[in-house]
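A student in our group prepared the protein record below, which I am reviewing. Here is the record exactly as it was handed to me.
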Amino acid sequence: MLNIPVALFTKYSLLLNKKSVPHSLHNNYKKWLRYYLDFCHKYCYGYADRESLKHFMIKLHEKHQSPSMQEEAAKAVTIYYEMLQTTPHSPTNPSGTGSDPLPVRSEGNVKPGDSPDSTAPFHFAGKSGTVPSNYPFPSLSGEGSAKYEWQKAYDDLSAEMKVRHYSPKTLRSYSTWVRKFQAFTKNKKPVELNSSDVKEFIRFLAVEKRVSASSQNQAFNALLFFYRHILKTDFGDQGDNVRARRSRYIPVVLSREEVDSVIDNLNYPYDLVVRLLYGCGLRLFECMKLRLHNFNLDAGVLTVHDGKGKKDRTVPLPRSIIPDIRKHLSYVTELHQKDLDVGYAGAFVDGLLEKKYKNIGRELIWQWFFPAKTLTLVPDEGKYRRYHLHETHVNKAIRRAVRKTKILKRVSSHTFRHSFATHLLQANYDIRTIQEMLGHSDVRTTMIYTHTIKSRTIKEVMSPLDF
C-alpha cells in the first residue's frame, strides 16, 4: 500500500472545512482519497491526472459501488485536485515531510528502469518541480517494470478489442482470464511469455481447477487473442494440450402455464420485461438496451439493434401486450420530462453519436424503454445521466417469482427465449423462420430446440413400463 504523508491529509482536511464539507463525512472523503492514490500506485496512473479519475470510477463501477458512493468518491478526488492546483511546490523541502502533497507523475517522464530515488523532473501541482528523494513513488525496475509492462498490455488489449467492436462483456471476460494467466505465471514479463506457459495454464485449469468446458475454451480464446494481437508472438502448436469437450446442452423449457405463473408473480416493470423476453425471443441484454424508437406499434414490429454479433433483426410484437407497452411509454415520457425539468444531461448514448448529434441523449426517442430508477453521475462531465434498468435487478426478480411458483426447473432470464423457440416449433413454424427471429447465424444453433419437443416424424418412444 502507498505510504501517504500525514501532511497531505492535514492540508486536505483544511480544504474540506473550507469547502463546508460536513465534519461527519471527512473520514469518508479521506478514505476515498486513499483508495484513489492506492489505485494510481497499483496501476501506474498519474496521481493528479484527471484521466486517472475516469479509470478509478470505472473500477468502482466494476466493484458494484452504489451511485451515491461513486458520487462521493468523485467529489473527494476533485477536492484533492483543487488542493494540488493551490499548492506550490517547495524545492527547499527535500525531506518531503512538510505540507507538500504527492508528486504528480507524468507518464512521459516515467520509463522502465527508473529508480524510486530518481530526481527527474515531474509536473508538480501543474508546475515544473523535482521529486524529493524519499517521496513514495513505485519503482519501475524489477517487479515494478513487469507491472508497468502488464498495465501497458492491458491498455493495448482494451484498445485492440474496441477497434474490432468487441462487446464490453467480452472485454471484461478476456481481461479477467489474462489477469489470471498473469498470476499463474507469477507476474512474468509479457515479452518473456511463451507457448509452454499457455499449455501449463490450460492444463492447470482442466486438471487442478476442474473448470467447465466452456470456461476452459473461453480462457483458451482469450489467450489466443492476447498472443496474436497484443504480444505479436506465435501462439504455438496447442494440439497436444488438454482441452475439454463441451457436451451438448438441451435447454430448459417452460410450459405456457409455467410462463404465465411466473409473470403473474412479477411486479411492474419486470412483468413487462419477461413478456418481451418470451413474446419476442429476446436476450436479456437486448431487452435492456431497447430504446423508444425500436417500437413500431402501428405495424406491430420490434427492431433489435446491435444484438449478439452486432446484428440487427425485426420480430413481431405480441398484440396482447401492446396496450401495456403504450401505458409504459406514457410513464417513460413523463419521467423524461421530469428529468429535463431538473436539467439532467440525457440518456447514455453508445459510441460517438452524441459528438455527431449534440443533445441526442435528451431527445425522447433515444430514451431507454426500461430506464433505471436513479440517475448516474458522470464524473468527467459533472452531470447526471440515466442508464437502463440493470440486468441483475431483472434476474433477482425472476428468481423470487420462480420460488413463489415452486417450479422445479432451473429458470433464468434466458429460459424464456428457449421457451419462445420451442413453442414456435410446437406450433409447426419452419426452423429457418425461427432462426431469423432468434438472430442465429447458423441454423445448427437453432436445431438444438428440436430436442426439446417430441418428434412427429417417428413413432413415439415409450418406456417398457408403459407397455
Summary: Residues 143-163 form the longest helix (21 residues). The radius of gyration is 27 Å. The longest strand covers residues 371-378. Residues 137 and 451 are 61 Å apart (CA to CA).
